[in-house]
Design goal:
337 residues, alpha+beta
């Protein structure tokens, strides 16, 4: 979700095969899923979508030795404090008999089981579905999905509330007044001309909820309103692409569903090395992105938006190849003078 253009990532995340497999799991496990939904007030379609993205419904859980992986990350140093905490948590898991040493396999970053919990999250949010006294997220689907439901519930999930709604923006929409991190009442977005992309009417309860406008591929691409449930999903994985992928997959379990906006395939997001060059260029032009590190975060977005505003471009903060070329051209021209 961090290295592909969003449209390519979504083709994989919500592929027809993943949709079919998830729909089959829902049919075969509906009783269990309904029980989990009733217990935690988390919509089971979302849980199944997370399960599908995290491990292909339990098929791909990772084959790295979690203890070795976390020890290596702690030694390597970039995330030492985090990795040491996870390594200590694994020790507690083994010492208390929650898991055997020989079953602790997962991702290179220490994520484990069918829903890919890191050790501290396992200890804090793991949930025993069948009451057998063990939270087995590796072999017990009920425990794995209950643990995910517990995490989302603790993060503030609202049952049967919207996660994402695709919208269209009027041509007159002023991006200069848009703050990607600021939430507004959906009624206010409606008054500013945003409409549901499916042509439907706004529900009265939706209008009374706060939402954020997200333009993950810039002004030329699809636009979305994201709701508090989307923020809860980001507690699971702090990626806009991941959150949209989970939402899209969950929608497709119920039948045909598509994103209606056109993706700007001629303007893919830039690479990490290009992001570093973009940050250095913005800094040289007087727009402060913070310390250049190749990571596109809020400071870099604000700097890019300031550049766009000053040079008459749509102020969408999207770091695509076209805007990268514009910043580099402006930097070259300034150096030439």
């Amino acid at each position: 979700e961090y290295v592909r253009p969003l449209w390519e990532y979504l083709d994989i995340a919500a592929s027809s095969q993943r949709v079919r497999n998830g729909a089959d799991e829902i049919v075969g496990r509906r009783g269990m899923l309904t029980a989990i939904e009733n217990r935690f007030s988390v919509d089971y379609e979302i849980l199944v979508a997370i399960w599908g993205l995290e491990s292909s419904y339990g098929v791909i859980q990772g084959d790295r030795d979690v203890v070795r992986s976390l020890a290596t990350l702690a030694w390597e140093g970039r995330r030492r404090t985090w990795a040491e905490a996870q390594l200590i948590a694994v020790g507690h898991m083994i010492d208390n008999g929650y898991a055997r040493r020989d079953e602790l396999f997962g991702s290179w970053a220490g994520a484990m089981g069918q829903t890919q919990f890191i050790p501290e999250t396992y200890l804090a949010r793991g949930a025993d579905f069948d009451g057998d006294g063990r939270i087995d997220i590796w072999n017990n689907v009920g425990d794995a999905l209950s643990s995910s439901a517990n995490l989302l519930a603790e993060a503030g999930w609202r049952h049967e509330a919207p996660v994402v709604i695709e919208v269209t923006l009027p041509e007159t929409f002023d991006l200069a007044t848009w703050d990607p991190g600021a939430a507004r009442m959906t009624a206010e977005w409606s008054m500013r001309g945003l409409r549901r992309a499916d042509g439907g009417d706004w529900h009265a309860d939706t209008l009374m909820q706060a939402s954020r406008l997200v333009l993950p591929s810039g002004r030329r691409g699809p636009a979305f309103l994201t709701f508090p449930n989307f923020q809860a999903l980001r507690r699971y994985n702090n990626s806009t692409s991941y959150g949209i992928g989970v939402w899209l997959l969950s929608q497709r379990f119920g039948g045909e569903f598509t994103i209606r906006g056109e993706w700007p395939e001629d303007d893919p997001p830039i690479t990490r090395s290009q992001t570093l060059e973009l940050q250095q260029g913005l800094l040289a032009l007087g727009y402060n992105p913070g310390t250049p590190d190749g990571m596109f975060g809020p400071n870099t977005r604000r700097a890019l938006m300031a550049f766009q505003r000053a040079h008459g471009y749509p102020v969408d903060g999207y770091a695509g190849r076209i805007m990268y070329d514009q910043v580099m051209a402006t930097l070259s021209a300034s150096e030439g003078n």
